[in-house]
Design a protein that fits this description.
- By secondary structure, the chain is α/β, with parallel strands linked by helices.
- It is built from eleven helices and six strands.
- It has a single domain, classed as Glycogen Phosphorylase B (Rossmann fold, 3-Layer(aba) Sandwich), CATH 3.40.50.
- Helices cover about 45% and strands about 10% of the residues.
Amino acid sequence: MSSESTLPLLPESVRPAAVVTGNPVRPEVLTGHPDKAVTALGLHSFDRRLPTAYVTGGAQGSQQINDVVGGELPWLLERANVVHQCGPAHHEALSARAAGLPASLAARYHVTPFVGPELPDVLALADLVISRSGAGTLAELTALGKPAVFIPLATAAGNEQAHNARLLEQSGAAVALLGEVTGGHLREAVGPLLDDPERRGAMAAASRAHGRPDAAERLVDVVLSVATERLSDVRR
């Protein structure tokens, strides 16, 4: 199982046999370095005295996240540097929006259709992540202990993204923005985190408490244990 919160979804008769291992995380995600992101993406105009937010809606981008963040760019860039992975279909519109920003703010904004091998370094650079809340995203962010503001995908099967976001919000590890999200909602969620390093630190610690960076090893141990038991049964 990926987390204790999923145990109630199992039939009661098999719950005692369930093992929570967490979702495996790619090892390279845990080895990023902020300065490598600056070099790889050419972020030398970023003001490193400010926090950095990483905005992502997944590989294809998210119209909802892009619209909300795009509408608040001047406000956001007064408080933070922003790396915005927007998806190929949205890059032109966001680039045009960025072109209308004052030069001092535009220097703090990097919009890109896709973040590839440099993702671990971008995550290392990020002080705050604004994203969807799929299981893979949660596994990576909690393994790294990253403060997050989640805007769940409303059409996710079984509303699992909203469930994931609420779970972390309840423990102080994230902020969940559910339903129709406006620019005002985004400011209310993001502003206190960007303005208060101690608040981000507390959220990071709460996030890390949910993380299982060794999930792959745990899963292998469970598989090997079951295989060994089955082999012993066959030999009896």
